[in-house]
From TrEMBL:
GO cellular component annotations of the record: cytosol
Domain Carbohydrate kinase PfkB: 3-294
Source organism (scientific name): Devosia marina
Name of the protein in its database record: Sugar kinase
Transmembrane segments: none
């Protein structure tokens, strides 16, 4: 039987491009993006399931079909009858991508309402992946239910990977965001933060400060991304710094970190060392930022 990876979070309708007010419709969301690159890079010894909630509208049906067609498991996607998927638009400004969201009443906000559905979803997983965005969209009690299911999965042998993925707009305050993310990270085996996002919130001066903060929480492997600068992979015994290869063609940085995570985790799951995994991750992210939207054709990254 294939070894299971479960990624938990929100998939939205994505509008990318926007030149002459012409947009391309896609489906994306940080945890789905990572699932997408895991699916693209792993062989059929692995299954990749996406756990979220969708509605019954045409876009929810299309998202399910899109995931099915691309080999991502949809059996644990819940249906919320009177809700629809969220939506976001990407715009480019001053060399970076920015997002505007319509997601306040999306179906995914209810993904952790059913405790037994969550427990079933993570059962038998080898790796469970979630993010700070997954936590940000949930009400406080639902966050507790999700973290409870994750702790149980870990007790049953799953490894837990977490990208803190800071989105201040989705949190009630920076203090709540910092507190919840730190508590969640302390339950995880692999944490994949982005230094530039975390530095102003936590006062980190260097990528080593970011790594140390998570190592001190008991995290085994910390993967600190830093945009176009070198990434730091830190464990209690080893520190590896890997610069990305030069990239000349940045079209849209959406999904760079998520694809980095997908490639990194797929390399680690198949026995690659920290250096090899970080190199593979930079390579994949370098391809993704040359295209519009978060998801590129899997053939381009294989
Ligand atoms: O910002 C979010 O919540 C998204 O999930 C949208 C993008 O796909 C994601 O941020 C890219 O990392």
């Amino acid at each position: 039987m294939a070894k299971r990876i479960v990624s938990i979070g929100e998939c939205m309708i994505e509008m990318s491009g926007g030149e002459d007010r012409t947009y391309r419709l896609g489906y994306a969301g940080d945890t789905l993006n990572t699932a997408w690159y895991l699916r693209a890079l792993l062989d059929q010894d692995w299954s990749v399931d996406y756990v979220t909630a969708l509605g019954q509208d045409r876009y929810s049906s299309d998202i399910r079909a899109f995931l099915d067609d691309n080999g991502i498991g949809t059996n644990h996607i819940q249906t919320i009858h009177d809700r629809r998927p969220g939506l976001y638009m990407i715009h480019q400004e001053k060399g970076d991508r920015h997002f505007t969201y319509w997601r306040d009443s999306s179906a995914a906000k209810l993904l952790a309402d059913d405790k037994s559905a969550l427990a079933n979803a993570v059962e038998g997983a080898e790796l469970v992946y979630f993010s700070g965005i997954t936590l940000a969209i949930l009400a406080p009690r639902a966050r507790g239910r999700l973290l409870g299911a994750i702790v149980k999965a870990r007790d049953n042998g799953a490894r837990i990977a977490f990208d803190t993925n800071l989105r201040p707009a989705l949190w009630s305050s920076p203090r709540v965001m910092a507190g919840v993310l730190t508590a969640a990270a302390s339950l995880c085996d692999i944490v994949l933060p982005t230094h530039t996002d975390e530095a102003p919130l936590f006062g980190d001066k260097t990528i080593d400060d970011t790594a140390d903060r998570y190592l001190e929480l008991g995290v085994e492997e910390v993967v600190v991304k830093d945009g176009s600068k070198e990434a730091l992979i830190a464990t209690a015994n080893e520190r590896v710094r890997i610069a990305p290869p030069p990239v000349t063609n940045v079209v849209d940085a959406t999904g760079a970190g998520d694809s980095f995570n997908g490639a990194y985790l797929s390399a680690r799951l198949t026995g690659k060392n920290l250096r090899e995994a970080a190199e593979a991750a930079h390579r994949t992210a370098g391809i993704v930022i040359g295209h519009k939207g978060a998801l590129v054709d899997p053939k381009l990254v294989r």
